[in-house]
């Protein structure tokens, strides 16, 4: 497990303004880590990931058997921050039957005919499951805030679209997540924090490598021009919606081995904190089991 003191550094404190530039995108979040050096940290990260993947597979079984809680993992980040790869690796040991992934793209006409939370509500994990949102309702305070024309498509009643409009959306999201937490869904939110320089390197890799070409979208380069607007939108959204019941974590994302180890650690720790139990067998069930054994054994 990763030291809780380090994990706490990634957690966005509720109700405080944040500057993303104060959060590391690489592996050197503290002086202590910097002293250890990259090779040592990489090796430790790989051990942490391996152990956590084993534990996560077990915990997920238990989550399913216990059938009282659900876990919702929200992944946000700039293009090429590593959302897909994180899902693929962190969930690699988990039983596919207990896990649901939803990737949210531009909303459909039907989505736009509903309130902005509707399509996310429909995709929530059932009790006993892990649900992953690859992008989420946060797009409605990020891309929609950066590109105001998207808001016009949402057919909202007339009104000002200033600061208090966006604050209203943060309030709605907080209330939605509060409701989820109260009714047994654990909500963990990860912002994969990639540097602008590393994004460029990954885009170039998508252009250079034929098997990665399909991942490249010209729109991504256009979005990159709005980098600073996204940083502002993220800072506002993360500060306003990191709560005790649904915290945000800013995860260093320039190195995939850091991202995966830290996300896996936070997810596994959250499950460990629940008092998950295999259901107890009642006296009646015990008798039924004994009867079943008797019948099977009689068959000879
Ligand atoms: P990708 O994750 O590369 O498949 O891209 C999905 C695209 O859908 C991104 O450009 C998102 O910004 C966009 N998107 C996701 N949710 C929304 C939303 N609620 N409104 C507008 N665009 C969205
Ligand atoms: Mg994309």
Output the CATH topology: Rossmann fold
Shape: globular
Total tally of structural domains? 1
- Architecture, according to CATH? 3-Layer(aba) Sandwich
How do the strands of the widest beta sheet line up side by side?
2-3-1-4-5
Descriptive key words:
about 300 residues; 14 helices; 5-stranded parallel β-sheet; globular; 5 strands; alpha/beta; Rossmann fold; about 10% strand; binds adenosine monophosphate
Task: Provide an overview of this structure.
By secondary structure, the protein is of the alpha/beta class. It has one domain (4-297): P-loop containing nucleotide triphosphate hydrolases (Rossmann fold), CATH 3.40.50.300. Helices cover 52% and strands 11% of the residues. The protein contains 14 helices and 5 strands. The protein has a 5-stranded parallel β-sheet, with helices on both faces. Helix 3 runs parallel beside helix 13 and helix 4 (83-90) crosses helix 13. The longest helix has 29 residues, at 38-66. The chain is globular. The model has no long low-confidence stretch (mean pLDDT 95). Bound molecules: adenosine monophosphate and magnesium ion.
Write a short abstract of this structure.
With 300 residues, the protein is of the alpha/beta class. 52% of the residues lie in helices and 11% in strands. The mean pLDDT is 95.
